[in-house]
Amino acid sequence: MKDSKQIIIKKVKKKESEGRHGGSWKVAYADFVTAMMAFFLLLWLITMVSPEKRARVAEYFKYFSLFKEGGVSIMEKSSAIFNESGETPAKVFAPYLEQNNVTPAALKEAIKQAVETLLKDVKEQILVRVVDEGVKIEIVDKNGSTMFELGSANLTSTAKQILKVMADNIKIISNPLYIEGHTDAYSYSTNHYSNWELSTDRANAARRFLEEAGIDPERIVKVVGYADKDPLIKENPLDPRNRRISITVLFKDNKNKKK
What we know:
alpha+beta, CATH 3.30.1330.60, 2 domains, 5-stranded mixed beta sheet, 5 strands, 12% strand
């Protein structure tokens, strides 16, 4: 018995996977950080792009459809979007209005997008709506921001800025135009120059500026002044918003299309 050896049993615990102290979580965390870096890089790039080019990209995705044949790839047009000099609202919206057989609703949305992008500071003074005749754009006064110098037909810098954006968006189509001038109910002390003359002169001033901005004169079929006889704010004829220029883009048989 003395020569017998003692048997020693050694229990070895099998190690499981690295568990909570392992390194697999680091991979997921690295992926998360990479994604966040890409996201913030995208935000930075967006802030560096001009509003017009952002609008071009936005309009591409707004009108893009996988189910339409002949779709335009944004990658194919990337150089046109980001490297084109002299970017204007007309270049931004022209391809979509032309390719989509523009409707009053589409034109309204394109103009509203241009206003939101390029005229944010004065967007409350630009009213766009679809009417029986087509699309009506009303450029109105407000206290502290007028379209014309007091009692004259001289356009202010604000009016020129707005009319330039409007011209850029409607000169890419060929629809006829009406231009109307309106005043508030304040009257002049002289009988030689009334609100009739003032509203007509202002409508003509807007017409001349639009033509200088590239609108074909042959498209303008009516220029008229209504004085204070067609107020926008009917309950208050003295409201500054009654002083306005209206541009109507005519659409043939639009009245029937709306029904």
